[in-house]
Amino acid sequence: MSKAFLVLLLALWPVASNAAEVLSIGDGDTLTVIEGNRRIKVRLACIDAPETSQSPYGTTARQALKSLLPVGTDVSLRVKATDRYGRTVAEVIRTGSNINQSLVSSGNTFVYWQYIGGCDRQTYSRLENKARSTGFGIWSVPGGIQRPWDYRQSRQSNSNGKRYRCKDISSWNAAQELLRQGHTYLDRDKDGEACESLK
């Protein structure tokens, strides 16, 4: 192997940052760490967790991240970019384990295909396919739950503020569609099903 090739390989290899310590978990794909005396808000790279209001999956994703990275855990970051909100976009590594990939393989997050650059596309694809085929978490619903990026977009476009009542909805299926569109108040017991009375 030539010396120039080795130098190029080392330059392109994703480098983990200095050790950081977990301070808090935001949701299923964000956390805050401290590195030295600097607080860093981290957005997990190449994955997208259900929004907290995508009950119960958003809460489950957050709990999964909390169990993988309890406060005080030492981690390292494979930094990919800085997003438009100023967050560090990174893969988080704990004792050699890629936390981002763990969340995908357990069915707690989707691969964020739009932003997969810089991550191992084949590994993420394999892990997501395995979670899908086993029906874990977000894949317990045939085809998976509404993708977080679609959910966010539907909430933005659903800004007319219209609210529905179960008794005014034509069917149970229509209620589930409204829930997927962001009308989470229709799921009063937060079990992921809207308007059970319409069954």
Give a nutshell description of this structure:
The chain is an alpha+beta fold and about 200 residues long. It is built from six helices and eight strands, in the order αββββαβββαβααα.
Please render the helix and strand layout as text:
Elements: H1 3-12, E1 20-27, E2 30-35, E3 38-44, E4 47-48, H2 57-68, E5 74-82, E6 88-94, E7 97-98, H3 99-105, E8 110-111, H4 121-134, H5 148-157, H6 172-180
Helix pairs in contact: 3-4
Task: Explain the overall architecture.
It is a single chain. This protein folds into two domains: 3-139, OB fold (Dihydrolipoamide Acetyltransferase, E2P); 158-198, no CATH class. The protein is 31% helix and 22% strand. The chain contains six helices and eight strands, in the order αββββαβββαβααα. It has helices at residues 3-12, 57-68, 99-105, 121-134, 148-157, 172-180, and strands at residues 20-27, 30-35, 38-44, 47-48, 74-82, 88-94, 97-98, 110-111.
What is the level-2 CATH architecture name of the largest domain?
A: Beta Barrel
Number of strands: 8
What is the domain total for the residues? Answer: 2
Order of helices and strands: HEEEEHEEEHEHHH
Distance between the termini: 67 Å
Q: How much helical structure, as a percent, in the residues?
A: 25-40%
Question: What do we call the CATH topology of the largest domain?
Answer: OB fold (Dihydrolipoamide Acetyltransferase, E2P)
